[in-house]
Design goal:
The protein has 6 helices and 3 strands; from the N terminus they run H-H-E-H-H-E-E-H-H. The N and C termini lie far apart (56 Å). The chain is mainly alpha-helical. A 3-stranded antiparallel beta sheet has the order 1-3-2.
Length: 161
């Protein structure tokens, strides 16, 4: 029998979760919410308890708790109770990506209004007003494009089923 610790067997799903989470972290996601997010994507049931997430990720339930709070605030995860169970389950909403884009669309509309207010404040003929006008035009363009992308996505999704 060899001395020392026995190396853990390779777990392809765990490795995938870690790789996917690392990509999310590079994109600006906090590390623990990124790690908790991925198992919810890949589980067949579409929902997991904090204990199940902790087991899959080899982390503490406290780490899961903070991560799901963050994900719930972003609208990427919902907390629910299953009738007859005292445990909380976490699941990803089915239309999460389009909801996220719709929220971003609302935020960009507010940004546009604030930028336009800034133009009125500094004057449209000033250098600052010119910069703000370009930013407003960009935000208006992107907001319009996002609305059209979401409409096309609805048509595309309807054809998938």
């Amino acid at each position: 029998m060899p001395d020392g610790p026995v190396p853990e067997a390779k777990d392809p799903l765990f490795d995938y979760i870690e790789r996917f989470a690392a990509v999310l972290v590079v994109a600006g996601f906090p590390p623990m919410p990124a790690r908790v997010f991925v198992p919810l994507l890949v589980t067949d049931s579409g929902r997991l308890t904090a204990a199940e997430l902790a087991g899959m990720l080899r982390i503490s339930p406290a780490a899961v708790s903070g991560a799901v709070r963050y994900l719930i605030q972003l609208g990427l995860v919902h907390k629910e109770r299953v009738p007859g169970s005292r445990r909380d389950y976490y699941r990803m909403p089915g239309n999460m990506w389009d909801d996220l884009l719709r929220m971003r669309d609302q935020v960009m509309s507010r940004w546009t209004a604030l930028v336009r207010e800034g133009i009125d404040l500094v004057g449209p003929d000033t250098p600052a007003g010119g910069r703000l006008a370009e930013q407003a035009a960009f935000l208006e363009f992107v907001t319009k494009e996002l609305s059209e992308v979401l409409a096309r996505w609805e048509q595309y999704r309807a054809g998938l089923g």
